[in-house]
Amino acid sequence: MDRPIRVLVSKPGLDGHDRGAKVIARALRDAGMEVIYTGLRQTPEQIVNAAIQEDVDCIAMSILSGAHNTLLPKVVELLKVENVDDILVIGGGVIPDEDIPFLKEKGIEEVFTPGTPTSVTIDYIKENIKRK
Amino acid sequence: MFEKEKLGKIKESFDAYEAKVAETTKKRPERKEVFETGSGAVVNRLYTPLDIEGFDYENDLGMPGSYPYTRGVQPTMYRGRFWTMRMYAGFATAEESNKRYKYLIEQGSMGLSVAFDLPTQIGYDSDHPLAEGEVGKVGVAIDSLADMELLFDGIPLDKVSTSMTINAPASVLLAMYIAVAEKQGVTADKLRGTIQNDILKEYIARGTYIFPTEASMRLITNIFEYCSKEVPLWNTISISGYHIREAGSTAAQEVGFTLSDGIAYVDAAIKAGLDVDTFAPRLSFFFNAHNDILEEVAKYRAARRLWARIMKERFGAKKAKSMALKFHTQTGGSTLTAQQPENNIVRVAIQTLAAVLGGTQSLHTNSKDEALALPTEDSVRVALRTQQIVAYESGAADTVDPLAGSYYIEAKTKAIEEEAMKYIKRIDEIGGAPRAIDNGYIQQEIMDAAYNYQKDIENDKRIIVGMNKFQIEEEAPKGLLRVDPSVGELQKSKIQALKEKRDNALVEERLEALRTACKSDENLMPYILDAVRAYGTLGEICGVMREVFGEYQQSVQL
Predict the structure, then answer these.
(1) pTM to 2 decimals?
(2) So what's the ipTM on this one?
(3) Residue-level pLDDT at B482
(4) Which of A8, A10, A19, A64 should be substituted to probe chain B, the one whose Cβ sees the most B Cβ atoms within 10 Å?
């Protein structure tokens, strides 16, 4: 792979707590990835459009509002509608452990909860992106 | 305060002490090369009178209840009565939240603090497409006066004081509160409480803004003006450092950026023709309490002293109440860990003590499970009990400003005041807080601090017990609060029923009157109140303002 890994960091839904998203975005950038940060209040449609337009390898979504079970699976569904199958979709934020199996079943490939070191997320993305 | 000759002697013995320490540390080095506070400021080995050489008791401290209020805003502080134990609560529907409020009052909570869900905070009704999945999640869903009536059902509004964490649509929620009181037969001049109403920190740190800066500032000054006449006991704004700190700022940045926002509100109100001494007594502040207890105590004292000086010297305030900085505190949500959540009870206890030793007027303590979900009834009770134990058992509330005169506390208070003042000057140079927000300066400073903090944790330079040290294998916690996903559907059907029942022509008429007022420079509060009384919804009212004012576009900083 010649070009750096490209990641879309996004805040789906209405919550404005973006410290985690911004810290992750910076850490990914420091690890040599190209990062596009969408800013707040993104709908699943906007996230998928941005991901396709920016030709990213990974969509990383941060959500603290409790709306994860509604919004995260919708992103995966919309990617399927667009016939995109080579983007790694991951999530993070205040997400109870008991919701993680449901999210994984819906195609969110990994979920990072509070206290996860940024290096864990970085390594995960490096090892799991689908575009070769 | 110190005689020159005595300071000279102290210097001699201090140098001798340091020489001796140098010998000791050669054999037994200290735990770290550099010790730092929770905010990353260097902590010296020892503090002595040499660190507060120019300290002048009268000028720097004075007595509690008098200028510059370093030692507190009331003469007797908690010997008169304890701070208000005000637990922030709200989730799901108005009915569910009403039950939680009654429970908290029964358990000894002294004031209500309403958490609204995100659609409410951003001015959308529960049936708006963007509200999907968010209704009732981080707070209660309020779509109209009908919901507000249920929220305060059986709670006499002349007896409790209510704080509402609402910013962009604060005018609408305040109008709903006034209208509920009218229905209870309580006149607006009896209402006590606070609306957060601090839009600048929304742009900086919290993100639930609606309108562009200028329109937001107008709404805020409209509220100042309206309340100074009609709701005189109401605190019309709570200028919030809390979220600035949660976004990753240092303690000194928390003070500097928050007071800069305060300066912007005072400027805007004066520009709108208000007299500083008519609205300044109703300004209040909101700060965070993190784990570094001594730094936090110094922070509160520095904030009080700095604000008193700003109000007196910069704005020429005359009334004592205009200069006295009153504040609510919340323990630091971002300091809580998802790992070993029981440990959070201890963190909250330390933070409670910081707030009390720093002289807060009211306090919300976070619950142990908040890094995981909204708190359950049981975990909220423990958080409230933490305050009660500090109040009734620790003795910390029995004398006023007990840490005053500590060489470290006084040196640190001065250091934070000076550092915060540097930020205020920098923001003045940029042209004030709204401009420093629009050009991203404040957000950038906070982001840098947040990133450094995270790196320190990952390098183990900063230890978080249970997270990067003393870890254990843990099972997933059980019994977390879950908001029933059917809340969204329920709210939708309530809105539909409301729209069938109310006088829709009257609503239209009042929304039209509001639209016209938005385009003039009239005070909007009476128009909003009329629309609310006719059961116009939050989404409809904010929709009219969105049409006229437009929406704020965030500038993204990394």
Answers:
(1) 0.95
(2) 0.93
(3) 85
(4) A19
